[in-house]
Structure prediction request, 310 residues.
Amino acid sequence: MSRRTFFLNRREFVAGTAALAAGSALPLPAFAANTVTLGDFEVTTFTDGHINLPAALRAPNADPEKWKEVLERAGRSGDTYKSPINVTLVRTPDELILIDFGSGPRFVPTTGKLEAALSDGGIDPMNITKVILTHGHPDHLWGALNDFDELTFPEATYYVAEKEFNFWKDPDAMKSLPEDRQNFVVGANTRFESIEERMKFVKEDDEVVSGIRVFETLGHTQGHMSVELKHGSESIVVLGDALTNPVLSFEYPEWRAGTDHLPEVGAATRKRLLDQLFASKARIIGYHLPPPGIGTVVKKGAGYAYEALA
Prediction:
């Protein structure tokens, strides 16, 4: 039996299982967290699960006592805090555009829920036409391959920043990361090799389709991008990991994040981005903000805060 045949049979099996569940007395879970619209764009967030991050991953320039208080408000539970994952799907009149791939089945057990979430929302992965990658961390890229090491979205074209691709492909990339994250490089290279034939490079201000452009939000990684959806004077900005926590990122953007590859660049990006988002009154979608991850930037004292969509 060929791998391709097995892939198709697996899809038929999943479809048949869903049909049986639909006919049973037990309701299926509703994974689609929320939908907002902007002109012709219908924008929905889907969960990919969550990551348990160590609370000890402290910003090195944060005041220790202030850090404890902030971490409690940021969602600390014991020695960890739960960081949710919200993946964005944009439906246009002609396209189904996913922003990031999710984690896939080989990262951590609390992630990799995107395929099930999309299925529950009536979305067939075969119908995804484009995937825009914000950056190459496992929870954003590793979902390019499913649990049978086939392309999860085999009909899509993949849009990747050349700076980001070059970082992960650099022979010295592993040396630039802490030891506990060096496997990220191996995983990224495996996924990039699998999608390279369907990949297109994008750079600052490139439009993927009319009204959807990418722009650099560097620091979390060397080529990190965010995505802006525009209609007239209104916009929705899909942040990736440019702003990751509803307290830390908004109220203390100058604190250098332990997960950033370039911490000082990341801090400068956060401060600039917050000014821009507040001034433009854009709605934002954060990959790791509280589900469904949709809100706005509001003033708080001399700085800013996150306000979830009502």
Observations:
- Confidence is low (pLDDT under 50) at residues 1-30.
- Helices lie at 3-22, 64-74, 114-120, 138-141, 162-169, 183-195, 248-251, 263-280.
- Residues 1-30 form one domain.
